[in-house]
Design goal:
Length: 192
């Protein structure tokens, strides 16, 4: 029997729209805060893995590319990638990079640094992105948008690479949001 489709089964389109909008106007990157806060709010509110299981656009996007579109080699995910050390290590690294992005935003806010109109790929390569800044706003708000978009694009690219090399949703094994929501659920389970 064919699985009944729900409205949230097509949220993969959100990933494409989000990344596409950021290509034309970087200020849309602010919308990414929804993807950042919603999983945490749902996990804290007791909805455990609801976001990952139903509402995560990126998870669906990777499943679509690797599954229906057949872009994944569907190989076993290596044990080290599943290990706690790697997952928590990656989460720690991700958070350090996130706070570094916030610090850069702060420097621009205080005037200690000029707005950088580039996207930082893989936390290393500065790719010019000035065309995506057609309307001037307060510089710190634009800096945050460039920084946040850098994080979103970088994590999507890593997700695509591991999707091709391993299983469609290999990224979910060490996704920082997934690790954080899992941690929240564990802490809550201990308290109960
Ligand atoms: S682990 Fe991350 S990418 Fe995967 S479904 Fe959950 S939030 Fe989405």
């Amino acid at each position: 029997m064919k699985k009944q489709l729900h409205w949230y089964d097509r949220l993969w389109i959100v990933t494409i729209i989000y990344l596409g909008l950021g290509f034309f106007n970087i200020l849309f990157a602010w919308l990414g805060l929804i993807f950042f806060c919603l999983p945490l709010i749902l996990a804290i509110g007791g909805k455990d893995k609801l976001y990952c299981n139903h509402y995560c656009d990126r998870g669906q996007f990777l499943a679509l590319l690797g599954g229906r579109l057949g872009l994944s080699r569907k190989r076993d995910i290596p044990g080290w990638m599943r290990s706690k050390a790697f997952r928590y290590g990656f989460l720690a690294f991700f958070m350090v990079m996130f706070f570094q992005m916030l610090y850069t935003t702060w420097l621009v806010f205080t005037g200690a640094r000029q707005l950088g109109m580039s996207v930082r790929l893989l936390w290393t390569f500065n790719v010019p992105w000035h065309w995506a800044y057609p309307v001037e706003v307060t510089p710190w708000a634009a800096q945050f948008a460039f920084g946040f978009y850098s994080i979103m694009l970088t994590s999507t690219l890593i997700g695509i690479v591991v999707m091709v090399l391993f299983k469609p949703r290999a990224w979910c094994v060490f996704c920082p949001m997934g690790t954080m929501t899992q941690l929240i659920c564990k802490v809550k389970a201990k308290e109960e």
